[in-house]
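Our preliminary data section would be incomplete without showing what the modeling component actually yields. Below, a chain of 256 amino acids is followed by its predicted structure, encoded as tokens that our downstream tools consume directly.
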Amino acid sequence: MGYYDLPAVIDFILGATESKNLAYVGHSQGTTELLTLLATRPEYNEKIRVAALMAPVAFLDRTKGTVRILAAFNGLLSRIAKLLGIYKVLTNSYWIHFVDTTLCEKTAPTILLCENFLFALSGFDRQQFNMSLLPLIADQGPSGASIKQLEHFGQLSNNGGKFTMFDYGRRSNMQRYGTPHPPEYKLSNVKVPVHLHYGLNDWISGVQDVTKLSRLLSNCTVKPVPYPKFMHLDFLWAKDVDKLLYRDMISMIGDR
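Predicted structure:
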């Protein structure tokens, strides 16, 4: 996604607008994709004027909650999926859509289960969560993910604090990379001015992991959202996200 899909999107936008560069705004995996792109195809540094990365994900040493539990069983879950011939999950099929919209309707007695499911994945912040959005969120998602995609994030949670390419196993790694272990992404190739915005209550993109990332980027500013309970999904749906984050982020991008 970082090596092929994202540069295709960037090139399409620049071609359509006849611009030389653009500003990039990403959240969670959208930040991982940009870091992957610039680390492996550094020529794209010239096409991005500035990047605002919300809840950046490169290192997952401090991930906690449900995601950490699932990551601990990453290898087992991946093998089971392959044995069963499952290569994607949470696609927006009719049945998943039906269950989501039924359980998460405003009047459904199970709506609190939907809310708590989101909190269990990303951190708790009931004060900023707009319950009226929940049926819309359920209606629009999930949009699906590949097993390999999730397996890669699981590897990042269990590889000793490194931001590495996908681990195919020793033999396949030798064929693909020329080394028994997957190489680390070269963050020194990232030259774009980067603003890292993080939440103090984010269970996926931990404060210490963001700090670690910032030390490896040559042109970087780090800014916490000024609200102690701000969590991973608040970047998208918090009631006061405009006041807490967006206005300042847009201003920082506009200064470039």
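The chain is about 45% helix and 10% strand. The beta strands are 22-27, 48-54, 88-89, 145-146, 194-198, 220-224. Preliminary results of this kind motivate Aim 1 of the renewal.
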